[in-house]
Write a sequence for this structure.
């Protein structure tokens, strides 16, 4: 497939300063989109914005904790003021506790739920309000296989991601009434900082660019077609 042209499209990627979010931001900027990234680490945002601007000088970013309603509202105000529209929204920022249910502290539980579920709720809902008015747009939430399957040591994370998937599916029904396509991508293990320290190593995991290609596939679908969910699994080649 040739490089698609997203010029004139405005995209927001949360958690866009590293990992999957950065890969998606670069993918979109390289194809012409005006990409705005958010995350908490200002230095990493600055570094990434410089890389994005090599493709398109209208790319920008700002720090924002997705758990803060106030900070997220400021970002949406800025996007409306600077770009006047929003075509693509990728709620991607996420965090994960590694613990069994009975060993999960309330602090860990709240961190996962506030980031992965409430944070995504705020991002996707504010994006939907703008897109509803436009009568067009794509919201693509980065969920996880942990949003469809249970894992012993990911109790809080699973709860947040199952919630996120349920929420996105409800939002998708609302989107059908106003021409906004809402999709969830549920990847298995992806080689990013998120997986650092995994006792099985990272060699067998997919790269974040695979998730970007899935985003590209969704955005390049014809008007008469729609995907509500993509599940991306890892693949282990069998020795013959
Ligand atoms: N890697 C995997 O195996 C995997 C598999 C399935 C799904 N996912 C999901 O994919 C998404 C991205 O993960 P990743 O693998 O790219 O992880 P990562 O490399 O650890 O990146 C996480 C991103 O989220 C941002 N973030 C974390 N907490 C935040 C907060 N409170 N407010 C704003 N930004 C925040 C981080 O930036 P700052 O730290 O600067 O804020 C960073 O940009 C997550 O939703 C994750 O659950 C990952």
């Amino acid at each position: 497939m040739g490089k698609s042209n997203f010029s004139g499209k405005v995209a927001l990627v949360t958690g866009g300063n590293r990992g999957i979010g950065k890969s998606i931001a670069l993918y979109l900027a390289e194809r012409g989109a005006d990409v705005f990234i958010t995350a908490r680490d200002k230095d990493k945002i600055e570094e990434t914005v410089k890389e994005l601007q090599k493709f398109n000088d209208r790319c920008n970013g700002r720090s924002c904790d997705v758990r803060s309603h106030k900070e997220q509202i400021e970002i949406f105000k800025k996007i409306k003021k600077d770009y006047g529209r929003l075509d693509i929204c990728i709620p991607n920022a996420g965090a994960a506790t590694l613990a069994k249910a009975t060993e999960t502290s309330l602090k860990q539980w709240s961190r996962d739920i506030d980031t992965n579920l409430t944070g995504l709720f705020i991002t996707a809902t504010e994006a939907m309000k703008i897109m509803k008015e436009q009568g067009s747009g794509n919201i693509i939430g980065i969920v996880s296989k942990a949003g469809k399957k249970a894992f012993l040591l990911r109790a809080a994370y699973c709860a947040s991601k199952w919630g996120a998937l349920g929420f996105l599916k409800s939002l998708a029904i609302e989107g059908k009434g106003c021409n906004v396509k809402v999709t969830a991508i549920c990847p298995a293990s992806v080689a990013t900082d998120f997986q650092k320290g995994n006792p099985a190593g990272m060699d067998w995991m997919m790269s974040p660019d695979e998730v970007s290609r899935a985003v590209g596939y969704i955005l390049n679908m014809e008007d008469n077609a729609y995907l509500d969910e993509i599940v991306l699994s890892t693949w282990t080649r069998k020795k013959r």
Q: What stands out?
A: The domain at 10-232 is CATH 3.40.50.720 (Rossmann fold). DSSP finds six helices and seven strands in the chain.
